[in-house]
Write a structure and sequence with these properties.
261 residues; mainly beta; Methylamine Dehydrogenase, Chain H; four-stranded antiparallel beta sheet; 2 helices; 23 strands; globular; binds calcium ion
């Protein structure tokens, strides 16, 4: 009895501790809310979507795959392609961001960042970036890039020199495979590759404040397991989001997180 009592109390303590940890995990993980769809528009099934953003009244989409990567300018009312240019055949297009009239387009593994005039889509410059390029956005002053890890890197738009990093966590756990990015009213939206979920991130702390869960909407889209949600654009005029995915047949106009219908 003398020997067993401490064992039992140790076990009970361990169970109690596990319970507390579980409770704190459940209590501390950021809350999720479903995507609320306002409209559905056609989207080209040839578009292996990598980046999506607004440029004035138009949408810009970048697409990937070697030999097929493009920049497309779209009418957000109809989803129709207004203009399109091909990227060099040897690069795999990734996310994009607009700073002034310069459109920055990441490439996946070639270390090249291609800069275009946002109106004419004429090439303007090329910059180098170490590591992989995944998603890109801007706070209007700096670029913010993802590389598939849980870290986002602020970069100087003139040189791409790193200016700082954000470690993204949900309840203390790193959130990796951050991909397409969008800056919305001082917060970062980031989708997690191969999931239909978008994290809403505090750029000051890296904490995930909430999740936008597009599971219902993403079901049955695309042709296969690679055809995941991968485009997020903020329409600041109408204060709505446009989202789509690789080879999805549709764009979805959805409400900003935290807003009720
Ligand atoms: Ca975006």
């Amino acid at each position: 009895m003398i020997r067993r009592a401490p064992r039992r109390s140790t076990l009970l303590s361990a169970l109690a501790l596990a319970g507390l940890l579980l409770a704190s995990t459940l209590a501390g993980a950021a809350p999720a809310e479903p995507c609320r769809v306002l409209a559905r528009l056609p989207h080209g099934r040839d578009a292996y979507t990598q980046g999506l953003l607004f440029h004035g009244p138009e949408l810009i989409e970048t697409t990937g795959l070697y030999g097929a990567s493009t920049i497309r300018v779209l009418d957000p009312a109809s989803g129709r392609i207004l203009r399109q240019v091909a990227l060099p055949r040897e690069v795999f297009g990734e996310g994009a961001a607009l700073l002034g009239e310069r459109l920055y387009v990441l490439t996946w593994r070639s270390g090249r960042v291609l800069v275009f005039d946002a109106n004419s889509l004429s090439p303007r410059a090329e910059l180098r970036l170490g590591g992989e390029g995944w998603g890109l956005t801007t706070d209007g002053r700096r670029l913010l890039a993802s590389d598939g890890s849980h870290r986002l890197t602020w970069r100087d738009p003139a040189s791409l020199a790193p200016l700082g990093q954000i470690e993204v966590t949900d309840n203390g756990a790193p959130v990796s495979r951050l991909n397409e990015l969008e800056w919305v009213d001082g917060l970062i939206l980031a989708n997690v590759w191969q999931t239909p979920k978008i994290a809403v991130i505090d750029p000051g702390t890296g904490r995930v404040l909430s999740w936008l869960d597009c599971t219902a909407l993403a079901a049955g889209q695309g042709f296969g397991p690679d055809d995941v949600l991968n485009g997020i654009a903020f329409d600041p005029g109408a204060r709505r989001l446009y989202i789509t995915g690789k080879r999805w047949p549709a764009f979805y106009v959805i409400e900003l997180p935290g807003r009720t219908p």
